[in-house]
Amino acid sequence: MFGQLGRLINRVTLSDRSYCFLFEAEPGNEAVSLDCETTGFDHWVDEIVSIAAIRISGARIHASSAFRALVRPEATMRPASIKVHQLRQQDVAQARAMTDVLPELLHFIGSRPLVGYWIQFDVRMLDKYMLAMLNTRLPNRRIDVSELYYDRKYGHAPPGTRIDLRYAAIRADLKLPVRAQHDAFEDALGAAEMYLLLEDLRARNVRLPRQQSDIRGNFAIA
What we know:
Blueprint: H1 2-13, E1 30-38, E2 48-57, E3 60-61, E4 67-70, H2 79-85, H3 89-92, H4 98-109, E5 114-116, H5 119-134, E6 142-144, H6 145-154, H7 167-173, H8 184-203, E7 220-221
Parallel strand pairs: 1-5, 3-7, 5-6
Antiparallel strand pairs: 1-2, 2-3, 2-4
């Protein structure tokens, strides 16, 4: 009920009615995997410097038609953030501002659910720009692959069980290939792979053993 109320409030406060498509019904069996690289982890003061979004339909990941953009932050990037995503000030000096990137991203996403690893952080970062530009927040449903993994792996675990939800640990347990981290496109692609594999396990009511398992994914990347 709270989700429905929040969605209604977001729609009422939307300042530009041409973006009402964000509130349409979700397309069947579709989602968008999303990742942002940022200047830090405080969504109030930090900024997005890179973003990628990849559509998923059925068991297919549409990587070749992904949305990818570098973003020029208003503030100077800090050395600590550069060490994480390897994007320097000169790498984004000629990039577009988020006010130019955001409309294209929203049309790419549409009303599809958003998939990601700790997706709430990415959405909070985008909401800052959404509020400034459209006086509303992203209404899209969020699907966190770490929560899907927790359900399949630890949903019935006894108290005291050691829980490991690190990105690399989840991929290793799912027998997925190692991907470079802190690259928006690679992280979005990695989240899409995890999502499809975990959704397949959920649909078949298969749980991950708390020992090493032999899991195989059944999906395609186009």
